[in-house]
Each structure stands twice: as C-alpha cells, then as structure tokens.
Amino acid sequence: MFNTMRITGESLAVAATAAVLISVTVARTSTTQAVAAVQGRQVPVTTGRAFADALHVVVIGLGVLALLGAILTAWALRPSHDTEADEVRAGIR
C-alpha cells in the first residue's frame, strides 16, 4: 500500500511539473516551438530562452515546496513540553 501511494505521488508530481513547464514555455512562445523544446529538438534561441525561464520557474517552485515540507516536518517532530501527557503515553501514570 505504501509503495502504491508513493508511486502515485511521484507520478502526479512529474505530471504537474511537466504541465507547468510546458505552460510557461507556451506562454512565451508558440505551441509547436514549446513542444519541440520540451522534446529536446533544436529550436530558435528565443524558444530556448523561454524554456530556460520556464525551467527556472519550476525549479524555484519545487525549492519553495521542499523548504515548506522541511519546515512542516521539523514542526511536526518538535519535542513535546507536556510531561504529564508524555507520562500517560509512556504508561507511567
């Protein structure tokens, strides 16, 4: 079950990243040139710049998402300061 959820999450992340990449590239060039750039074919310099700009948007977005995930994980794993609740959970009381 865990592997299924992990693979599903990764697949959705790759699909979303590709969708943002192609959308930002299309917004700055024509659709056919954007598709050619994403497929790795030779494109005009302006399309290459648009693709690089789109890649920067995607990488910065993913970096912000990773930072947010790290902050939330650190917050969730912070030590508890409620000693009475800790004793109850440990079975001392």
Secondary-structure topology with pairs:
Elements: H1 2-28, H2 31-38, H3 45-76, H4 83-90
Number of discrete domains:
1
Sheet-strand content, in percent, reads under 5%
| Residue runs with pLDDT of under 50 for 5 or more positions | none
Number of helices: 4
Features:
transmembrane, single chain, transmembrane helix, mainly alpha, 93 residues, 81% helix
What does this protein structure show overall?
The chain has 93 residues and is mainly alpha-helical. It has one domain. Helices cover 81% and strands 0% of the residues. It is built from 4 helices and no strands. The protein is elongated and about 70 Å long.
Please sum up the structure shown.
Helices cover 81% and strands 0% of the residues. It is mainly alpha-helical.
